[in-house]
Automatic annotation (TrEMBL):
Keyword Phosphoprotein in annotation: no
NCBIfam families: GTPase_YlqF (TIGR03596)
Start and end residues of each CP-type G domain: 1-163
InterPro entries: G_CP_dom, GTP-bd, GTP-bd_ortho_bundle_sf, GTP-bd_ribosome_bgen, GTPase_MTG1, P-loop_NTPase
The protein, known as: Ribosome biogenesis GTPase A
GO MF entries: GTP binding; GTPase activity
Gene3D superfamilies in the cross-refs: 1.10.1580.10, P-loop containing nucleotide triphosphate hydrolases
Alphabetical GO biological process terms: translation
Residues reported in the UniProt entry to bind GTP: N43, K44, S45, D46, N71, S72, N115, V116, G117, K118, S119, T120, G159
Matching Pfam families: MMR_HSR1
Gene this chain is encoded by: ylqF
Keywords, in A-Z order: GTP-binding, Nucleotide-binding
């Protein structure tokens, strides 16, 4: 169905989560969208490390995409989109003009994996609730054209998450941002993965937020449970509750601005994300 829809449009507006820009891309979109103008929106950029946002924007621009950093919920960055759409579709608009077709709106399609913010983006951008939104993956159903203004029409399509992850790390990142159904996940394991990542890449976050300081991830989770009084009925530490709390704090930006992956050209390993992005942006 997506291939059929693509024939109708001039521009693909692809939403990715700024905290995991590569992991939150549907890998098929480059083949399906070959030959179309492309705009990538780094959504939820307010939750991501700003130095890494700049690096990711440069990474995608080098590959020929137009890029805008946005926060669909607050509306930040949305004003810049119309101008970028006109720039991205300059050739098409010029071609129309030569044929004597004036003011035909650019037709664009919004794509992205579940829960990356497509419906929220369309609602904010159009200024009215024209796409059904929710915080669960797969809430958008069916296609509809939305006339935004004289120069732009949007087709909203459900983002489709590919069914299997060849790379387990990608699955973990998507689970952390909430793009995979929470019901099918072991929250404790996920929380430990997040702790290990933060220890390596943002070493002061857990101490600043929970006064937790240990080298062992399980011990850190225990300390978080103590700090937040996560106790079961018998007075035992409730690690499942502490895990949920930690993941929610990450998703809501309460741990600070955190990016979970770097562009492929960035060195990783022992270098932490903060330093690496800093060096790359300087």
């Amino acid at each position: 169905a997506m291939k059929e829809d693509i024939k109708l449009i001039d521009l693909i507006i692809e939403l990715v989560d700024a905290r995991v820009p590569l992991s939150s891309r549907n890998p098929d979109i480059d083949d399906i969208g070959a030959g179309k103008a492309r705009l990538i929106l780094l959504n939820k950029s307010d939750l991501a490390d700003e130095r890494c946002n700049l690096k990711w924007a440069a990474y995608f621009q080098e590959k020929g995409y137009f890029v805008v950093k946005v926060n669909s919920r607050s509306g930040a960055g949305l004003k810049a989109i119309n101008g970028v759409v006109q720039e991205a579709c300059k050739e098409k608009i010029e071609r129309d003009r030569r044929r004597g077709i004036l003011n035909r709106p650019v037709r664009a399609m919004v794509v992205g994996i579940p829960n990356v913010g497509k419906s929220t983006f369309i609602n904010s951008f159009a200024g009215k609730a024209c796409a059904k939104t929710g915080n669960k993956p797969g809430v958008t159903k069916g296609n509809q054209w939305i006339r935004l203004n004289k120069s732009l029409e949007l087709l909203d399509t459900p983002g489709i998450l590919w069914p299997k992850f060849e790379d387990q790390t990608v699955g973990i990142r998507l689970a952390l941002i909430g793009s995979i159904n929470d019901e099918i996940l072991n929250k404790d394991e996920l929380a430990l993965e997040l702790i290990r990542f933060l220890q390596k890449q943002y070493p002061n976050v857990l101490e600043d937020k929970y006064q937790a300081d240990a080298s062992d991830a399980v011990e850190l989770l225990n300390q978080i449970a103590k700090a937040r009084a996560c106790l079961s009925k018998g007075g035992e530490l409730d690690l499942a509750k502490a895990s949920r709390l930690l993941i929610d704090d990450f998703r809501n930006g309460k741990l600070g601005k955190i990016t979970l992956e770097l562009p492929p050209e960035c060195p990783s390993g022992n270098t932490n994300v903060e330093q690496t992005c800093d060096e790359k942006v300087k």
